[in-house]
Specification:
The structure holds two protein chains of two kinds. By secondary structure, chain A is α+β, with helices and mostly antiparallel strands. Chain A is built from two helices and six strands; from the N terminus they run E-E-H-E-E-E-H-E. Chain A has a six-stranded antiparallel beta sheet with strand order 1-6-2-3-4-5. The longest helix of chain A is centred in the middle third of the chain and has 9 residues, at about 25-30. By secondary structure, chain B is an alpha/beta fold. Chain B has helices at about 15-20, 65-75, 90-100, 115-120, 125-135, 150-155, 170-185, 195-200, 205-250, 255-260, 280-305, 310-315, 320-325, 330-340, 340-345, 355-365, 370-380, 385-410, 430-465, 465-480, 490-495, 500-505, 515-525, 530-540, 545-570; strands spanning about 1-10, 40-45, 50-55, 80-85, 105-110, 120-125, 135-140, 185, 265, 270, 420. Chain B is elongated and about 80 Å long. The model of chain B has no long low-confidence stretch (mean pLDDT about 95). Classes of the chains: A alpha+beta, B alpha/beta. Strand 5 (about 60-65) of chain A pairs antiparallel with strand 11 (about 420) of chain B.
């Protein structure tokens, strides 16, 4: 089942399927490790529309909620 | 002269490599975006002088902020590129490496942070990586200096690959996939205590209470250390100096030279804060009142920077900062600004859009007092009680938030969300921290002393010719009727453009009550930045935006000052 990254619960690991958004934005995501095929874990979700902290390849990154909404993931892995 | 340019992703240690190569001192930290400008240094290679340039970090050759644009401009000047790569993060770093190779400049790769790969269970076949990339790859630990000699000795092996074909983004990622499969093995490792601390400090439930405790302890420690240093070292030192200053005073007699060097004699004695002479107030403000706070503040900042705590704090505060038109990374401008507004203004470069840079810069100069000013506020308000200081800082924080909300609504432009790499926690190196603190303290001394002397000189000249009295008269309707301050306070506001610490000191002889001092100290923070900050901000924001920012500053100062007068003093 596919969904957007913002729907993923804290502590869960999912696989990145597709990225939306502008060309530069996609390059930036990929150069920070967030790219198709990677396993991504939601480490924490910050309240009041705050960012998500995600982990890819053992490295963490903070990403705004709107940006996270442009990342499509496969929930069942 | 030939030019070597250091290129690499943010926070891979370029500046540390730069320091090792050139012996030049630059500020290094454990968070992405420490270097926002380029630094030049020299090294000797094959008996030839070579210029080495440290560029801001960039994830790709498609810039996403002003600091990255600077990096690209510098790349164009390069005769040779040293691509610094984080060995613990090879895969994503390789994208820039492949882009750089396609630029057809002679290049070597420094595989930095090599020692950490072992702890993380990562093994990399360096020989194979060299064969695939067709560039020399040298493993380094810039922090300890390992590998730097080999890096230098192999610079002459660097060649440009003229026959390299240009590939698109997708092809590069496919190639990176192949390279990683061939050269890297990762053994799964168990969670360590470092991971647990990292998790606790970034999750809101635990992270927010921890951040409050950390900030409280940090600032308490700075204040405590500052007070102890003043009481037991700097005050006694100036008491030793007092008889000497008195001898000079008697020897000079009366006249203009006495006014400039020693200043007024109050009750038969020199008053180091109020006398307003170069050899009295001019020395006492920087050394007796500000320096004792500057040193512990910058040590505290170094701990925050070098452990890697700041990006976590940026994450925790992002929801708030994003509503103010910037995002969590704006906290870096606040922290640097609390030391000195100048580096704070430079740090706006890591923000993505013009709107964000305008808001972050304006908010900082309005409501973030630099350490020199803070120290003086503690110095003059402290004796009346801590709650007066509390009023000043609560008002300033409220203004930061309120003006942020307003500016975010009315300033045109985009305000993208936070997107920030969180570096692993690292044990700070004491020597690096001390060196960094010393560099910053030295900047303060180099910057403060001439301006303080100049300030004291100007005050004396302007008093002597009656200009300050005249100016006080003109602005009396504002200072007296609107802000409820004596009209002489205008002089302090004017000198605040040169040095804010001196300006706060100038409030003391005016015989104000503590509430008036609170208002004056607050208005003095808001109304205008000092000349050094003004110059940097003008360059960063441009003339048009700077005029707008100035309007915001003066408007805010008048409104807030008037309101404070109504609330704190009454009509």
């Amino acid at each position: 089942m596919e969904d957007i990254l913002t729907a993923v619960k804290e502590g869960k690991e999912v696989v990145i399927v597709k990225l939306f958004g502008g060309h530069r934005f996609q390059i930036r995501l990929r150069t920070m490790g967030i790219r198709e095929g990677k396993v991504i874990k939601v480490v924490s979700r910050h309240p009041f529309g705050g960012p998500l902290v995600v982990e890819v390849d053992g490295r963490e990154a903070t990403i705004g909620r709107g940006m996270a909404g442009k990342i499509i993931v496969e929930m069942n892995i | 002269m030939k030019k070597i340019v250091l290129m690499g992703n943010p926070n891979v240690g370029k500046s540390v490599v730069f320091s090792r190569l050139t012996g030049a001192n630059v500020i290094t930290s454990n968070y992405p975006g420490t270097t926002v400008d380029f630094y030049k240094g020299k090294m000797v290679f094959n008996k030839e002088d070579i210029e080495v340039i440290d560029a801001p970090g960039t994830y790709s050759l498609e810039p996403s902020n002003k600091a990255e644009e600077i990096a690209l401009k510098i790349l164009d000047q390069a005769d040779l590129v040293i691509n610094v790569v984080d060995a613990t993060n090879l895969e994503r770093n390789l994208f820039l490496t492949l882009e750089l190779i396609e630029k057809k400049r002679p290049m070597v790769v420094a595989l930095n942070i090599w020692d950490e790969t072992k702890h993380l269970g990562i093994s990399i076949d360096v020989k194979r990586l060299e064969e695939i990339l067709k560039v020399p790859v040298i493993t380094t630990n810039a922090l300890s200096g390992e590998g730097i000699k080999e890096l230098v000795s192999r610079l002459n092996e660097a060649e440009s690959q003229e026959d390299i074909k240009q590939t698109g983004e997708e092809e590069k990622w496919i190639e990176i996939g192949h390279i990683i499969r061939e050269v890297q093995k990762v053994i799964h490792r168990h969670h360590t205590i470092r991971d647990r601390i990292s998790e606790a400090t970034i999750k809101p439930i635990t992270g927010i209470p921890i951040s409050i405790i950390i900030i409280f302890i940090s600032f308490w420690a700075v204040r405590f250390t500052g007070e102890v240093l003043i009481k037991f070292i700097f005050k006694p030192l100036f008491e030793l100096y007092r008889p000497l200053a008195m001898i000079i005073s008697n020897w000079l007699g009366s006249g203009f030279l006495h006014e400039v060097l020693i200043g007024k004699i109050i009750d038969g004695q020199i008053d180091f804060v109020q006398s307003m002479g170069i050899l009295t107030t001019g020395l006492y403000v920087p050394f007796g009142m500000v320096y004792p706070y500057i040193v512990p503040f910058y040590l505290m900042l170094a701990v925050m920077e070098d452990t890697g705590y700041l990006p976590r704090l940026a994450t925790l505060t992002d929801s708030l900062f994003h509503r103010l038109g910037t995002h969590g990374h704006g906290i870096v401008t606040v922290f640097l600004g609390l030391g000195c507004n100048v580096p704070g203004a430079f740090a706006t470069r890591t923000l993505e859009t013009k709107k964000q840079r305008f808001i972050a810069g304006t908010l900082m100069v309005i409501s973030v007092p630099c350490m020199a000013q803070t120290a003086m506020i503690f110095g003059i308000l402290g004796p009346y009680g801590l709650h007066y200081i509390f009023i000043v800082f609560t008002t300033l924080s409220a203004i930061y938030i309120l003006m942020g909300l307003i500016l975010n609504r009315f300033v045109k432009g985009e305000s993208p969300e936070i997107f920030l790499e969180i570096p692993p926690y690292r044990r700070p190196n004491i020597r690096t921290m001390l060196k960094k603190t010393w560099m910053r303290v030295r900047w303060f001394l180099k910057d403060a002393i001439p301006f303080l002397f100049l300030g004291v000189l100007i005050v004396n000249i302007l008093y002597a010719v009656g200009f300050l009295e005249w100016l006080g008269g003109i602005f009396a309707p504002i200072t007296e009727r609107w802000l409820g301050l004596p009209k002489e306070a205008t002089a302090a506001l004017m000198i605040g453009f040169l040095r804010k610490d001196l300006a706060v000191g100038m409030l003391l002889p005016l015989g104000m009550n503590p509430m008036q001092l609170v208002i004056a100290a607050t208005v003095l923070t808001i109304y205008f930045p000092c000349v050094a900050t003004f110059a940097v901000l003008l360059k960063e924001l441009g003339v048009k935006d700077m005029i707008k920012a100035t309007g915001v500053m003066i408007g805010t100062a008048l409104i807030v000052g008037g309101l404070m007068r109504l609330i704190l003093i009454g009509i």
